[in-house]
Amino acid sequence: MLNDPVLLNDWHAVAPVEQVKSQVMLATQILGEDLVLWYADGEIMAWQDLCIHRGTRLSLGEVRDNTLHCPYHGWVYNASGQCVHIPAHPEQAPPAKARVKSYACTVAYDLVWVCLGEPTQAPPPFPEWELADYRKLLCGPYRVPASGPRIIENFLDIAHFPFVHEGILGVKDRPEIAD
Questions:
Q1: Domains in the chain, start-ordered, CATH in brackets?
Q2: In which order are the strands placed within the sheet that holds 67-69?
Q3: Element (H, E) at 8
Q4: Is the torsion defined by CA of 59, 1, 104, 81 positive or negative?
Q5: Mean per-residue pLDDT for 109-120?
Q6: Residue 166 DSSP class
Protein backbone atom coordinates (compact mmCIF):
# COMPACT_ATOMS: atom_id res chain seq x y z
CA MET A 1 0.00 0.00 0.00
CA LEU A 2 1.18 3.50 -0.79
CA ASN A 3 2.10 5.15 2.49
CA ASP A 4 1.40 8.80 1.63
CA PRO A 5 -0.40 10.49 4.56
CA VAL A 6 -2.20 12.97 2.31
CA LEU A 7 -3.63 10.29 0.05
CA LEU A 8 -4.24 7.75 2.83
CA ASN A 9 -6.39 10.17 4.83
CA ASP A 10 -8.43 11.34 1.87
CA TRP A 11 -11.52 9.83 0.25
CA HIS A 12 -11.26 7.96 -3.05
CA ALA A 13 -14.17 7.06 -5.32
CA VAL A 14 -13.83 3.33 -5.99
CA ALA A 15 -17.05 2.15 -7.67
CA PRO A 16 -20.60 3.12 -8.61
CA VAL A 17 -22.89 2.19 -5.72
CA GLU A 18 -25.22 0.25 -8.03
CA GLN A 19 -22.33 -1.93 -9.19
CA VAL A 20 -21.65 -3.03 -5.61
CA LYS A 21 -25.33 -3.64 -4.86
CA SER A 22 -25.88 -5.62 -8.05
CA GLN A 23 -22.78 -7.79 -7.67
CA VAL A 24 -23.13 -8.29 -3.90
CA MET A 25 -19.33 -8.34 -3.68
CA LEU A 26 -16.74 -6.45 -5.72
CA ALA A 27 -12.94 -6.67 -5.76
CA THR A 28 -11.13 -3.38 -6.38
CA GLN A 29 -7.87 -1.66 -5.56
CA ILE A 30 -6.77 1.80 -4.45
CA LEU A 31 -3.25 3.02 -3.72
CA GLY A 32 -1.97 -0.53 -4.10
CA GLU A 33 -4.36 -1.96 -1.50
CA ASP A 34 -6.64 -4.81 -2.61
CA LEU A 35 -10.17 -4.26 -1.33
CA VAL A 36 -13.41 -6.17 -1.27
CA LEU A 37 -16.62 -4.15 -1.22
CA TRP A 38 -19.76 -5.92 -0.14
CA TYR A 39 -23.28 -5.13 0.89
CA ALA A 40 -24.70 -6.15 4.29
CA ASP A 41 -27.43 -4.84 6.57
CA GLY A 42 -28.18 -2.07 4.07
CA GLU A 43 -24.61 -0.74 4.16
CA ILE A 44 -21.56 -1.14 1.96
CA MET A 45 -18.47 -2.51 3.68
CA ALA A 46 -14.89 -1.88 2.51
CA TRP A 47 -12.36 -4.43 3.71
CA GLN A 48 -8.86 -5.52 2.92
CA ASP A 49 -9.34 -8.36 0.42
CA LEU A 50 -7.51 -10.84 2.63
CA CYS A 51 -8.71 -13.58 4.96
CA ILE A 52 -6.63 -13.29 8.11
CA HIS A 53 -6.41 -17.09 8.36
CA ARG A 54 -4.48 -18.09 5.23
CA GLY A 55 -4.44 -14.96 3.08
CA THR A 56 -7.10 -16.00 0.58
CA ARG A 57 -8.93 -13.25 -1.30
CA LEU A 58 -12.27 -12.79 0.42
CA SER A 59 -13.71 -11.48 -2.84
CA LEU A 60 -13.63 -15.08 -4.11
CA GLY A 61 -15.99 -16.13 -1.32
CA GLU A 62 -19.69 -15.50 -0.90
CA VAL A 63 -22.12 -13.40 1.08
CA ARG A 64 -24.87 -15.17 3.03
CA ASP A 65 -27.18 -13.72 5.67
CA ASN A 66 -25.15 -10.51 6.02
CA THR A 67 -21.92 -12.45 6.58
CA LEU A 68 -18.94 -12.94 4.30
CA HIS A 69 -17.63 -16.50 3.91
CA CYS A 70 -13.99 -17.16 3.01
CA PRO A 71 -13.70 -19.55 0.03
CA TYR A 72 -10.73 -21.49 1.43
CA HIS A 73 -11.66 -22.76 4.91
CA GLY A 74 -15.12 -21.23 5.21
CA TRP A 75 -14.34 -18.75 7.98
CA VAL A 76 -17.38 -16.54 8.48
CA TYR A 77 -17.07 -12.79 9.14
CA ASN A 78 -19.87 -10.53 10.33
CA ALA A 79 -20.45 -7.01 9.00
CA SER A 80 -18.03 -5.51 11.54
CA GLY A 81 -15.20 -7.72 10.26
CA GLN A 82 -15.11 -10.09 13.23
CA CYS A 83 -14.76 -13.82 12.55
CA VAL A 84 -17.85 -15.40 14.10
CA HIS A 85 -17.52 -19.02 12.95
CA ILE A 86 -14.72 -21.42 12.02
CA PRO A 87 -16.24 -24.54 10.39
CA ALA A 88 -13.27 -26.77 11.30
CA HIS A 89 -13.83 -25.96 15.00
CA PRO A 90 -17.57 -25.29 15.33
CA GLU A 91 -17.61 -25.67 19.12
CA GLN A 92 -14.86 -23.11 19.71
CA ALA A 93 -15.35 -19.36 19.70
CA PRO A 94 -13.08 -17.68 17.14
CA PRO A 95 -10.21 -15.68 18.67
CA ALA A 96 -10.99 -12.00 19.30
CA LYS A 97 -8.05 -11.00 17.10
CA ALA A 98 -9.60 -12.88 14.14
CA ARG A 99 -10.79 -9.70 12.47
CA VAL A 100 -10.53 -8.43 8.91
CA LYS A 101 -9.02 -4.98 8.39
CA SER A 102 -11.85 -2.63 7.47
CA TYR A 103 -11.79 0.88 6.07
CA ALA A 104 -14.01 3.94 6.33
CA CYS A 105 -16.62 3.78 3.59
CA THR A 106 -19.41 6.12 2.56
CA VAL A 107 -21.68 6.82 -0.39
CA ALA A 108 -21.86 10.21 -2.12
CA TYR A 109 -22.91 11.19 -5.66
CA ASP A 110 -23.92 7.58 -6.42
CA LEU A 111 -20.32 6.46 -5.83
CA VAL A 112 -18.71 4.39 -3.09
CA TRP A 113 -15.89 6.32 -1.41
CA VAL A 114 -13.18 4.67 0.71
CA CYS A 115 -10.53 6.15 2.99
CA LEU A 116 -7.58 3.89 3.86
CA GLY A 117 -6.47 6.10 6.75
CA GLU A 118 -8.33 8.45 9.07
CA PRO A 119 -10.70 10.72 7.14
CA THR A 120 -10.57 14.32 8.30
CA GLN A 121 -13.53 15.51 6.24
CA ALA A 122 -16.38 14.31 4.04
CA PRO A 123 -15.84 13.41 0.37
CA PRO A 124 -15.20 16.51 -1.74
CA PRO A 125 -18.23 18.71 -2.42
CA PHE A 126 -19.78 18.37 -5.85
CA PRO A 127 -22.84 20.67 -5.87
CA GLU A 128 -23.28 20.33 -9.65
CA TRP A 129 -24.25 16.68 -9.16
CA GLU A 130 -27.82 17.66 -8.35
CA LEU A 131 -28.22 20.06 -11.29
CA ALA A 132 -30.53 18.74 -13.99
CA ASP A 133 -28.52 20.56 -16.69
CA TYR A 134 -25.50 18.37 -16.01
CA ARG A 135 -25.22 14.94 -17.54
CA LYS A 136 -23.52 12.35 -15.38
CA LEU A 137 -21.10 10.02 -17.07
CA LEU A 138 -19.38 7.33 -15.04
CA CYS A 139 -16.51 5.66 -16.84
CA GLY A 140 -13.47 3.58 -16.03
CA PRO A 141 -11.79 2.28 -14.08
CA TYR A 142 -8.56 2.85 -15.90
CA ARG A 143 -5.35 1.12 -14.86
CA VAL A 144 -2.43 3.52 -14.98
CA PRO A 145 1.04 2.13 -14.29
CA ALA A 146 2.06 5.04 -12.03
CA SER A 147 1.87 6.03 -8.40
CA GLY A 148 -1.05 8.05 -7.03
CA PRO A 149 1.03 11.21 -6.42
CA ARG A 150 2.49 11.02 -9.94
CA ILE A 151 -0.99 10.80 -11.48
CA ILE A 152 -2.24 13.77 -9.44
CA GLU A 153 0.86 15.78 -10.37
CA ASN A 154 0.22 14.97 -14.04
CA PHE A 155 -3.34 16.33 -13.89
CA LEU A 156 -2.29 19.48 -12.03
CA ASP A 157 0.65 20.26 -14.35
CA ILE A 158 -1.22 21.84 -17.24
CA ALA A 159 1.95 23.32 -18.78
CA HIS A 160 2.79 19.94 -20.33
CA PHE A 161 -0.52 19.63 -22.21
CA PRO A 162 0.53 21.40 -25.47
CA PHE A 163 3.64 19.24 -25.73
CA VAL A 164 2.48 15.81 -24.57
CA HIS A 165 -1.19 16.01 -25.59
CA GLU A 166 -0.91 18.24 -28.66
CA GLY A 167 -4.09 18.40 -30.70
CA ILE A 168 -6.20 17.14 -27.81
CA LEU A 169 -5.45 19.46 -24.90
CA GLY A 170 -3.16 22.07 -26.40
CA VAL A 171 -1.06 23.39 -29.25
CA LYS A 172 2.75 23.76 -29.13
CA ASP A 173 2.57 27.17 -30.80
CA ARG A 174 0.40 28.48 -27.93
CA PRO A 175 1.82 27.07 -24.66
CA GLU A 176 0.86 30.13 -22.56
CA ILE A 177 -1.27 29.54 -19.49
CA ALA A 178 -3.97 32.15 -18.93
CA ASP A 179 -4.37 33.65 -15.47
A1: 5-118 (2.102.10.10), 144-179 (no CATH)
A2: 62-64, 67-69, 76-77, 83-85
A3: helix 5-8
A4: positive
A5: 94
A6: B
- Name residues whose C-beta falls within 8 Å of residue 22's C-beta, 6 or more positions apart in sequence: none
- The DSSP output letter for 61 is S
Alpha helices in 24-178 (DSSP H): 148-156, 161-164
Q: How confident is the model at residue 151 (pLDDT cuts 50, 70, 90)?
A: confident
Q: What is the pLDDT of residues 62-94, one digit of tens each?
A: 999 999 999 989 999 999 999 999 999 999 999
DSSP state letters, 121-165: SPSPP-GGGG-TTSPP--------SS-HHHHHHHHH-GGGHHHHS
Q: Which amino acid is at 102?
A: S
Q: What is the pTM of this model?
A: 0.79
- The rounded distance, in Å, linking the Cα atoms of 31 and 82 is 24
30 within 8 A of 114, measured Cβ to Cβ: yes
Compute the distance between CA of residue 146 and CA of residue 126 in angstroms, rounded to an integer: 26
Calpha distance 132→123 (Å, rounded): 21
